[in-house]
Design a protein that fits this description.
Quinone Oxidoreductase, Chain A, domain 1; six-stranded parallel sheet; alpha/beta; 2 domains; 325 residues; Rossmann fold; seven-stranded mixed sheet; 26% strand; 11 helices; globular; binds NADP nicotinamide-adenine-dinucleotide phosphate
Length: 325
């Protein structure tokens, strides 16, 4: 089978190579998936470039570790073969999921993965839509609902709202009738208005932390400013929820969050993703036409290095999707 192999850090086009490898055999609770669609994530950009350098502690100091040699963490496809202990699926089932807790490898024609990483795809969803969901929708849902405890009619701000998480977060916040402000830049702002953001702000022109507006919830996909600045624009009982960002700022959260509780009702939280936790709920919302997928692409399998560069250059709106056939 064809698969992308990475053996060094650098420019995606130079370090990712399409090679022939042996098709894996599923054993025990593993299934072999014929990959029909996959996505590009922040993780792929960091793994390919080896930056931020601190991530190399996980990826491998000098070059990516062996088990990361075939990257790709989200998949939608068809079960081609099943191990003898598989109970959830049968050959021919259409499935999707975030496979990162069980290994990687969706930048390939086939991937062999534990059945626990997968959920049955809703019939009305395309494979391209399905693969765009797990990571971004779970971060948005767990950030707003589980950690943020969003309530009806709140004022919500999504920092980095034009990306993969932002588009799902907007739609989920709208289920609570929230007034949603999105912060991003360039061409994305028009697309965000069209998606239904009530207000959009260009981070290159406006610093929302200096405005008089106050928010009940801030969902931050970038966490790139001093946390004091975010606290200033929160309502008295508001919550700031980071899903990721600059390492220094995230560390700052770890000691500031408990201290803050001593003198304020404002709260700081960091989301630790529980992969695939509520995909059945997202299937249901999709079938009820309450949620749709914002896709950049789909692009062809041979353009994966180009698509990773596109992600790094920040040219995408929504989730970058790759069709594989
Ligand atoms: N908590 C967890 O367990 C967990 C797990 C995995 C991933 N994550 C995190 O999830 C995040 C990925 O979110 P995503 O998929 O939505 O990313 P994304 O698609 O890259 O979206 C982020 C958006 O933010 C915009 N942006 C850049 N700089 C900004 C600024 N200064 N102010 C406001 N917006 C800015 C980007 O625009 P440009 O394109 O112009 O840069 C982009 O449109 C990452 O932070 C990652 O680390 C968290």
């Amino acid at each position: 089978m064809k698969a992308y192999n990475i053996n060094n850090y650098g420019v995606p086009d130079k370090v990712l190579h399409l090679i022939d490898v042996e098709k894996p055999e599923p054993k025990d609770t593993k299934v072999l998936i014929r990959v029909l669609a996959t996505t590009i994530n922040d993780y792929d950009w960091c793994l390919t470039t080896g930056k931020p350098r601190a991530y190399r502690l996980f990826f491998g100091i000098f070059r990516p570790r062996r088990k990361l040699k075939i990257p790709g963490m989200e998949v939608a496809g068809i079960v081609e073969q099943a191990g003898n202990e598989v109970t959830k699926f049968k050959v021919g089932d259409a499935v999707y999921g975030d496979i990162s807790d069980f290994g990687f490898g969706s930048f390939a024609e086939f991937v062999c993965i534990d059945e626990k990483a997968l959920t049955r795809k809703s019939d009305s969803m395309s494979f391209e839509e399905a693969t765009s969901i797990p990571h971004a929708a779970m971060l948005a849902l767990q950030g707003l609902r589980d950690v943020g405890q969003i309530k009806d009619n709140q004022k919500v701000l999504i920092n980095g709202g034009g990306g993969g998480v932002g588009s799902f977060a907007l739609q989920l916040a709208k289920l609570y009738n929230a007034e949603v402000t999105g912060v991003d830049t360039g061409e994305k702002l028009k697309a965000m208005e069209a998606q239904g953001f009530d207000n959009v702000l260009d981070y290159k022109k406006v610093d929302f932390t200096k405005s008089d507006q106050r928010y009940d919830l801030i969902l931050d996909c970038k966490t790139n400013r001093s946390l004091w600045k975010f606290l200033k624009v929160l309502m008295p009982e508001g919550r700031y929820i980071s899903i990721g960002g600059k390492t220094g700022k995230l560390l700052q959260m770890l000691y500031m969050a408990p201290l803050l509780k001593l003198f304020s009702k404002k709260r700081l939280h960091l989301v630790a993703l529980k992969a695939n936790k509520d995909l059945d709920y997202i299937n249901q919302l999709y079938e009820e036409n309450k949620i749709s997928c914002v896709i950049d692409g789909p692009y062809t399998f041979d353009r994966i290095p180009w698509a990773i560069q596109r992600f790094g250059d920040g040219l995408h709106t929504g989730k970058i999707v790759i069709s594989v056939n």
